[in-house]
Queue: 4 jobs
Job 1
Amino acid sequence: AAEPDAADPDARGAADPAADPDAGAAAPDRWGRVALVRRIGRSLLALLLATSAGGALLTFSAQLAPDTAVAVLMLVCLTSVAAACRWLFGGLADRWGSGRLQRPLLAAGVVGLALVGLAGGAGGSSTAALLVAGSLAVGVAYGGLQSATLVTAFAEGGEGDHAGVSVAWNVGFDLGTGLGSAVVGVLATQVSFRAA
C-alpha cells in the first residue's frame, strides 16, 4: 500500500491524529459526570420532589376532582401560578441567592399536597376549595423551584460545565414529572387517587 505523500496536506491530516482535534478525543469522563451530579445533587433532589408533585396533579386532576369544572380550575391554577413563580423566583434568586429559596418552596409544595390530601375527607364546596388551594401551593413550588434549582445548579456545577448541568437538570425535570405520575398511578390502583 502506498504511503501518504508528505506534500499532500489531506494525506498528512488523515495519517496524523494530532491534525484532527476530534481524532484523539477521549471517551466521556463518567467519573466527571458522577462528580457533577454529586455537586448539584441537592438541587436535583429538590427539583425531583417538586416536579413529582406537579406531575401527579397534572396527570390525575380529573380523578381527584369531584367534577370537570374543579379539575379544569385546578389545572389552570397550577400552571398559571407555576409560570408566574418561575419568572418571579428567577429574579429573586438573582437578588437574594437561589439556595435560600429552596426550603420555603419545598414547604409550599408539602402544604399543597397536604391540602389535596385533606380534600378527600371533606365534603361539598370544601373539597373544591381544598383542591384549588392545594393546586395553587403546589404551583408555587413547581414553578419557583424550577428557577431556583437551575440557578443553584449552574453555580454549584462551575463555569466550565454548563452543558452538563443543563442536561442533568432537564433529566431531573423529566424524571420527576414521570415519577410523580407513575407512583400515584400505582398507588391509586391499590387504594384510591386521593389516598395516593
Job 2
Amino acid sequence: GRTAVYVAADLARRDGGAWDPYTRVFRRDLVTGALSVVGDPAQSGDASSARVSGDGRFIAFAGTTNQGVEVFLHDATTGQITRVSRPAATWSTAAHVDISADGRFVVYTRTFEADGDDNDTYLYRYEIATGRTTRPLSADLGGDVFGVPVAVSGSGRFIVTTRASIADPVRFPVPDEVVYRLVRVDAASRTSTVVT
C-alpha cells in the first residue's frame, strides 16, 4: 500500500498545561511524503502499537488511558476515532492489534491483571461495519504483563497468536515451566489449531 504507520515520541500539551512527551501514531503517505498525527492524546493516551488496512483508510492502534490499555480505530476518511475495546472491570496492562488487509476487521488481544502473579489475556475480533465484537477463542491465552501478539489474515478469518501452557515435564524438567505455543484460530468455526 501507499500508507505506512508507526509509533514514535512527540510533544503535546497534557490537560492544556506544559508540553510533555507522548508516544503517538504517525501516518505517512509514501507517494506524497505527507505526514500526519493520528489521534488526540487526551482521548487515546500514549500509543503502543499500530496497524493499517491495505487501502490506508483505517488505522487500529493501542493507547494507554486512565482505564488501562485500550484499542482504538482511526478512519482517515472522516478523521473519526472510535474506541474498539470495551470498558473492563479490571486494569488492562497491554493490548496488541492487527487489522485485516480488506479493512473489515480489527483483531486484538488484551491482558488484564488477575489475582496473584497471573494475568488473563483474551482474543477479540471487531467488525468495523457493524461495531460488533466477538471472541473467536473463549479460552484465556495466558501471557505476562506485556501481552500476547496477534496477526490476522487479509480476509480477517484466520488469526495467529500464542497461548501459554505448562511444558511437557519430560522435555522441560523445571516444574510448572510455561511455554508459548503458536496457535491458528479460525474465527468462522471458532476452532483453534496448535501450529508449534
Job 3
Amino acid sequence: YFDTANIVTDQYVYYQVNQNYFREFGREPFSYIISTNDPRDILRLPMNYLDSFSDYHSFSVTAYNAGGNTLGNSTVVADAWGTLITNGITLNDVLRICTHTITNGSYVGPSGPYYNHSNSFVYSFYSASIRYPVLEISTDSIGNITYTTYQDFLNPVIESQTNSFPEITPNPSNGNFLISNPGNDDLEITLYNSTG
C-alpha cells in the first residue's frame, strides 16, 4: 500500500522523509488499514522558528465489516525555540512545532453509520542532533494531555522492544472487542460510542 514510504515504525505507521518534507502515508496494523488519499505533511523543510503552513489531508479506513473516510486540515507552526532540559540531557537549539489538526469522518460498520470529529494539538520538540522528536505532547481541544512520548536518555531502549502499549482490536468494533495489555500496566478504561 505504501510503496514510496521510506520509514515504518513498530506501530506500522508509514512515512516518507526527504529534503523537502516529512509526510505520513498511512497505517497498516493487523486489523485495519488507513491509507491516505492526500498524505498528511508533518513538516515541510526547512522549518525555522516562526515558519508555518497549513495542509489539507484525507484518508480511508478499511477493516473487517467496516470502512469510511476522514477529511482534515492541519496548521503547523514552529512556535518556540530554545533549550530543552530533560531528566537525562540538556539539548540546545530545540525547535517546538505545534500542529493543530481538525478532522471529520464518516464510517459504516455492522451496526450502521457513525461519525467522528477530532480537534487536537500536538507539540513536537526537534533537535538538530536527533532524527525523531525528543518529546511529543498531544492534547485535546481544551488542553487535556492525551499522550506523551519522549526519548529516555537515562534508560534507552531498543526500538523493537517498545511495542508494549495497550491495544483494542478490532477498531472500529461491532460491540465485541479484545483489549491486550502486553506491558501489564494498570489501566482505566472508559468506553464512548460514536456520539461521545
Job 4
Amino acid sequence: HHVAVDLALGHAPGGVVAADLRDVLAQERHLSGARVVAEDGGAVWCWGNGGAGALADNYYVNRATPVRAMGTAPMSGMRDIVAGSSRACAIDADGGLLCWGSGAYHALGNGSTISRSIATRVLDTDGVSPLNDVVMASLGAFHSCAVTDGGAAWCWGHNHQGQIGNWSGIDWPTPQRVSGAGGLGVLADVVSLAAG
C-alpha cells in the first residue's frame, strides 16, 4: 500500500512525477505480482511482474517503475480497469473491452490462447467484431466476464467447472451469453457480476 499512497500524493517509484501521473488513482487493481492504475484522464500505467505480457508495454519483462500501457497506441480515455491472474482489462470510452497478459484457456476473449503484451480487443461471439457497450467486467483465474448496457452477462475462457455459465463444460474463445436458471434462456437485467 506504500506505493499507492505515494502515487496518491503525486510521487511514483523510479522518479515518475505528478506531471506524468496527475490526478492519479481513479482506479487501482492488482495482478499476480503487478499493479495497474488508471488516471482520471483514462491513461493506464502498469509495473511489477511483466510475465505473460501483463504490463501491456509490448515486452515480457518486469518493471520497477510504471510504464504506459499500450494498445495500438498508448491507452487513454479508459473508463474502468480490472485485473485478474496474470492479465488485466480496460473498458474504453466507447464501451469496448481491451485485455492483455495471459491468454491461457482463451481468457483474453480474442479467439486465441496466445498471451498478449499489448491490449487487444475482446471479440463478440462471432469472433470477428468487437464486444461493444461493456459497462463492467470481472476476471476469474482463467475466465472472464462482462456486463453490457441493457444487463446482458457474457463470459469466456476456462470452463471446466461451468464458470462460463452456458452448460457446455468446454472452454470458449470468445464471449458467450450466460444461461438463465436451469439452462433456459439467458440472464437479463444483470446489475453486478463477480467472476471469482
